[in-house]
Amino acid sequence: MAAHQTKLNVLGNNIANVNTYGFKSSRVVFSDVLYQNLSTATGATAENGGTNASQLGYGTKVGSIDMMNTISSGASTGRALDVYIAGEGYLAVQPTAGANRYTRVGNLKFDALGNLTDGGGSKVMGIPLDADGNPVLNPNGTLAVEELQAINVPPAELEKYTGITIGKSGEITGIRAGDPEFTAAPGFASITANIPATSNYTGKISIETVAGPDVTYTTNPDPIIAAELVNASVAVTVDAAEDIIGDITITKSGTAASPVYTLNYKQKDGTVKEITGTDAATPPEIEFLGLPGTTTVTVGDPTKLTFSGTTPYILGTVTADTMDVTATVYDKGGVAYTFTRTMTRATDTSLTLGDPAAPDLLQDITLNFDPAKFFAVGTVTDTTIGAIETGSDKPVTLGYLAIAKFANTDGLLQDGNGYFMESANSGQAIASKAGTNGTGGTQSANLEMSNVDLSQEFTDMIIAQRGFQANSRIITVSDSILEELINLKR
To answer: Do both 372 and 465 map to the same domain?
Structure first.
């Protein structure tokens, strides 16, 4: 009767979980118990035949309760992050750090911290990815469960993905908008933009420029040096369009009888140029010919130049013109932001936009350009130089589910909440990519149904009930016999 009661308990648990996703039913196997030998068996001889043993049994007991690991069909849910393993294997999860559990119930979701979790809040373990998003596995395509990693996507990144789903090989993919792309407006083809993928800008970029002072030449104001130029005339003319920037200097070399004067200057790209002086049309003036364009440097009576030749004398300095550039850009909400930068025509080759007060919202955008072409626009008002547009959508691999397999799945221990644990007889879990090494492929938008066969359970319940009922009659019969024995004395 105790054995049949246990069987009824198991049947009741099976029926109760007929609608539990991923549930595996159990069965009870009875076995007979010890026997009392009333007589032993004897062998046959030439004179007598052999006799069989006479044994008296003591009933039945529960031999084993077996988990039925048959694979049930999947039920469509229409939810992309629900996953069904179409074959053998289990999802590896961690209810707490270091505690591995295994489940067939794939109702997955991302939590607020970007962790992929199951319905019970356990972290779902996945196969590590390389830089190209491919799963990192041993040469035989497996991986020890200790090497698995919790699947996590930073929340700031996760919100940029749409259409997240799970493929047949357990790959979790999402659609992400392509990196922002800058398209220069006609007439500004020299401009290119380095726009971070996290930029919050979109739409057109317009500029308004206000030209600053033209290139200027300033004579060296040092009074000591100026005193050395008594009765000497220095004339320098630099056109704004010429390729000269910085200090213009003179050095003296050679001998006292035959001095050599050299003029030095820099081009706007930093290249140093040297020009040797020659006699001018009006001696003893010296001219330095060969400067860009119409730029000329003429020095009167060089004999009056008493400076040391080893120390260059600075005639003056050429300062490049500047331009104030005001740029207007828009964030994805349509709010306009304005930034003003002062650009130096000869040296600046880029314009960086950004709001230091809101770096998380407005990432820097750098416009690289050809100064000659960019500044050629002169003074303009509200001119569109280009636009930022979202790039093409592209699928991105966010992670790979790990499917664990055991040498003896029947040896697993049920831990409640749809979880299974390793046991001494199950063998160690070996993780693989879904659909490899004997594991089943994964199907999105499905969950595994319970494998409880309700009609079979009710049939077995009737049989168990009748078995319990028949055994209970033994007590009644035994009671009647005892009553007859007592009545014999009367």
So the answer is: no
CA 285-288-289 angle, to 5 degrees, is 125
Residue 378: inside a domain, yes or no? yes
Please indicate, yes or no, if residue 158 is contained in any of the structural domains: no
Q: How many domains does the chain have?
A: 4
* Overall average pLDDT of the 181-198 stretch: 84
101-149 pLDDT, tens digit per residue, is: 999 999 999 999 999 999 989 999 999 999 888 899 999 999 999 999 9
Interatomic CA distance for residues 119 and 123, integer angstroms: 10
The predicted model scores a pTM of 0.60
> Could you tell me if 346 and 320 are in contact, meaning their C-beta atoms sit under 8 angstroms apart?
yes
Location of structure tokens 């067939």:
104
Q: Which structural domain, as residue segments, surrounds residue 420?
A: 74-148+402-448
> Can you list the positions of beta strands (E) in 58-111?
60-67, 74-76, 82-86, 90-96, 99-103, 106-107, 109-110
Among candidate residues 429, 452, 445, 415, the one with its CA nearest the CA of residue 106? 445
147-151, long-range: CB < 8 A, 24+ apart = 147/431, 148/92, 148/402, 148/431, 149/125, 150/94, 150/115, 150/116, 150/123, 150/124, 150/125, 150/126, 151/115, 151/116, 151/123, 151/124, 151/125, 151/126, 151/398, 151/399, 151/401
CB–CB of 398/174 below 8 Å?
A: yes
Could you say which DSSP state residue 185 is in? P
**To which H or E segment does residue 55 belong?**
strand 54-57
* 108 in Cβ contact with 477 (< 8 Å): no
At position 118, the amino acid (one-letter code) is D
The residue type at 7: K
Same-domain check for residues 280 and 421: no
The identity of residue 447, as a single letter, is L
Distance of CA 15 to the CA centre of its chain: 44
Strands 234-237 and 216-219: unpaired
In a domain? residue 302:
yes
Return the closest-CA partner of residue 234 out of 211, 267, 263.
263
185 neighbors 149 (Cβ within 8 angstroms): no
